[in-house]
Amino acid sequence: MAWRFALVIDPAAAGDARTDFGDTFTPIDVAAPALSVGEMSTQRGDGIFESIGVVDRHAQEVGPHLDRLAHSARLCDLPAPHLEQWRQAVAIAAEHCPPEGEAVIKLILSRGVEHGPTPTAWVTAAEAPDNSAVRDRGIRVVTLDRGYGIDTPARAPWLLLGAKTLSYAVNMAAIREAKRRGADDAVFISSDGFVLEAPTASLILRIDGRFVTPAPNGGILHGTTQLSLFAHLEEGGSETAYETIPVTDLEKADAAWLVSSVRLAAPIRAVDGRELAVDAELTASFNRYLLTPRD
Ligand code: PLP
To answer: Which PANTHER family match (predicted)?
Structure first.
């Protein structure tokens, strides 16, 4: 039986000066019902989340994930999360992970129960899926129109395009469509022809020896894995850049990856049926780096 752990958080105000938040956490029985009827996260997907990779009990990049949780909360008009409180909740969840191997910690901040006084918040930990095959063999992707222009996020911020909201039904539908087309995953394209991101990962292309990723102001999530990998590449002397990338540039890439916190770096083997070489050695070095403890 796969192991799981969960605790509910009584969210503290962002300005709370306490240093120990232990009494605001309630571990819960993962097999028992835990959410109230009327919970907005389940009724409307009205909330935000983060998925943090865990390696040998070390939660990776907790600071960047908490910063993005706070960013998503701002975009969604949710109360600012108390970052130290969430950090302590993550630490408890990490302690409940096995001493060896990969796990995933999820942070959820929901608008709460309809007409209720506060948001609802909880943290879970569970075994990570086995991603060794996608890291080694790679994945086939198809491009899918997201239906928004590259300037839509600036014109229509209420679409919450840069927030990691709980409303992932569209992202999951895109992956199903990619599978119907014989691929493993999708890469979203803006309606005016720019490359964006995958439904659950960031895209990195290598073009003329430079590592390029779509600029986050185009309505995509700023991935913590891409950020960390770019810092690592820059340290090693490689050139990196955020750019507005036309879809025609996909053909210029001599290697490409989808990267995210739990899957880590998955090399792309084909785009819309066109084969792409996998740089197996570089991919292995990316994943070795991503599996080392990172803060
Ligand atoms: N883009 C989307 C839409 C995602 O859902 C994710 C992760 O789930 C990412 C990018 C990658 O983000 P991270 O590297 O922080 O996991």
So the answer is: AMINO-ACID AMINOTRANSFERASE (PTHR42743), AMINODEOXYCHORISMATE LYASE (PTHR42743:SF11)
